[in-house]
Amino acid sequence: MNKSITGRHFELTEPIKAYADTLIDSLEKYHLDIISASTVIAANEKNGKKGFVTEFIINLKDKNTIVITQVDKDVYAAMDLAIERVKKSLRRHADRVKDHKVMSFKDMGVEAEAVSEYTTDEELEIVPMDLELHKPLDFDEAIEALKAEKKRQFIVFNDNEGLMRVMYKRADGKFGLY
Question: By C-alpha distance, which of 80, 71, 86 is closest to 20?
Fold first, then answer.
């Protein structure tokens, strides 16, 4: 991970740099691919109030960027508050990544014995089904098929012109067509 710690309108001391560096190192525990982490600490003298603005910019793999800005009178307090917000964002991102799982045979309701029967030492081969083998459906027939099954949300079919279509139930009770 590339790290940069920058001071703007403010000269960074070694203890502040070291503290910011340890805060950035604490982000490794989330096991996310962090490409770079930038910290910008600036003196804030707006409206006659003295304080510090701390900004953490965390670039993650897959073009995800987290930017957190925190203002406080004390530079260490600003960094602490900002890093807690960064950790919360990273925790949420890690949970999203963890919850996004690939569907397995078990999720599809296939028993382990049935899978082992087909997956000895070779790869399981999935053959796409040609929809032209089936009778083309009219739009009215597709609507009736959707109405007949309450749980079914959409139907994929070939129309009379041979085009693959998708008809789906909309939230307002009407039907949509792709």
Answer: 80
Q: Which two tokens stand for residue 128?
A: 């796409």
Tell me how crowded residue 169 is: count the other CB atoms within 10 A of its CB. 17
Identify residue 167 by its one-letter amino acid code. Answer: M
Contact assessment for residue 33 and residue 60, using Cβ atoms and an 8 Å cutoff: yes
What does the block give as tokens for 109? Answer: 């309701």
Q: Specify the 3-state DSSP secondary structure of 91.
A: helix
Q: Choose between 6 and 151: higher pLDDT.
A: 6
The dihedral built from the CA positions of residue 167, 169, 171 and 174, taken in this order, carries a sign that is: positive
Radius of gyration in angstroms for the set of CA atoms belonging to the chain, rounded to a whole number: 28
Cβ within 8 Å of residue 56, ≥6 positions away: 24, 37, 38, 39, 66, 67, 68, 82, 83, 86
Instruction: Find out whether 6 and 41 touch, Cβ atoms under 8 Å.
Output: yes
Q: Which two tokens stand for residue 106?
A: 């078990």
CA 178 – CA 157 distance, rounded (Å): 11
pLDDT tens, residue by residue, 17-37: 999 999 999 998 877 889 999
| Of 110 and 45, more confident | 45
